[in-house]
């Protein structure tokens, strides 16, 4: 089972390696970095919003504190020390809130500065990665095109290999058919194979053809002799020839009548 699992993982890894495109991986990584940068920027905006809200609260509390201080002074001026004490007590409580809010404001301001600096650094890294990504993609595309051209010229690509095999099979089959056709022609010429048309000549017809062909040659030869001698006709030359030639002519004449 372990061996089967290892084989399966090896084949799956090989298939994934063939299917993987480095350019797509780089684009995906760049997209993830942009998403992270967007989150950091959103965090900076949230912290800045909280800081601004604290500043508004501080302004309100400071306004109330100033108002209570004025009320205390008026109360003392009117001889109402009790009212002045109450106003100052409320002002003291507000001052405690102001102190707490100022502390929170300083903390948020520090966080905002840190996040802003981090966002700037991340932005620089993303820009550098984008430049490097495009460079790698262009180099990979050029190398891929060069490899394909090289494979096409060398004939080592799968497509060219298949074409080469198809051409070789066609040439082998053509040579086999040519050899078979030549062998059949030789067998037909030698008489080892019967004529498929059923019109093969027997030995008598073959002999008659031979005699007829010989007579034609003898006639032409005697005619030429007569012309050279300057007298007589081809028929007279034949009649004056040997008996075998006359016999052959009579035999041919007899067969012609039949």
UniProtKB/TrEMBL annotation:
Family per record: Belongs to the PspA/Vipp/IM30 family.
Protein name: Phage shock protein A (PspA) family protein
Keywords, ordered alphabetically: Coiled coil
UniProt entry tagged with the keyword Coiled coil: yes
Chain residue ranges for the region called Disordered: 226-258
Chain coiled-coil ranges: 44-139
InterPro entries linked: PspA_VIPP1 (IPR007157)
Top-level taxonomy: Bacteria, Bacillati, Actinomycetota, Actinomycetes, Kitasatosporales
Pfam families (UniProt xref): PspA_IM30 (PF04012)
């Amino acid at each position: 089972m372990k061996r089967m699992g290892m084989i399966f993982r090896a084949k799956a890894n090989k298939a994934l390696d063939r299917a993987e495109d480095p350019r797509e991986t780089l684009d995906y990584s760049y997209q993830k970095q942009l998403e992270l940068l967007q989150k950091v920027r959103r965090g900076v905006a949230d912290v800045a919003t909280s800081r601004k809200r604290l500043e508004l609260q501080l302004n309100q509390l400071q306004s109330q504190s100033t108002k209570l201080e004025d009320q205390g002074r008026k109360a003392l001026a009117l001889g109402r020390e009790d009212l002045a004490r109450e106003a100052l007590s409320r002002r003291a409580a507000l001052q405690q809130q102001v102190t707490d809010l100022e502390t929170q404001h300083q903390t948020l301001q520090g966080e905002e500065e840190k996040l802003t600096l981090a966002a700037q650094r991340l932005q620089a890294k993303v820009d550098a990665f984008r430049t490097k990504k495009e460079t790698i993609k262009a180099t990979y595309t050029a190398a891929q095109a060069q490899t394909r051209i090289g494979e096409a010229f060398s004939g080592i690509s799968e497509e060219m290999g298949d074409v080469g095999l198809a051409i070789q099979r066609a040439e082998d089959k053509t040579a086999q058919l040519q050899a078979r056709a030549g062998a059949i022609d030789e067998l037909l010429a030698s008489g080892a194979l019967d004529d498929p048309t059923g019109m093969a000549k027997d030995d008598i017809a073959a002999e008659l053809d031979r005699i007829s062909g010989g007579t034609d040659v003898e006639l032409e030869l005697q005619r030429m002799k007569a012309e050279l001698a300057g007298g007589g006709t081809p028929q007279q030359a034949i009649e004056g020839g040997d008996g075998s030639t006359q016999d052959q002519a009579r035999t041919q004449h007899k067969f012609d009548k039949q």
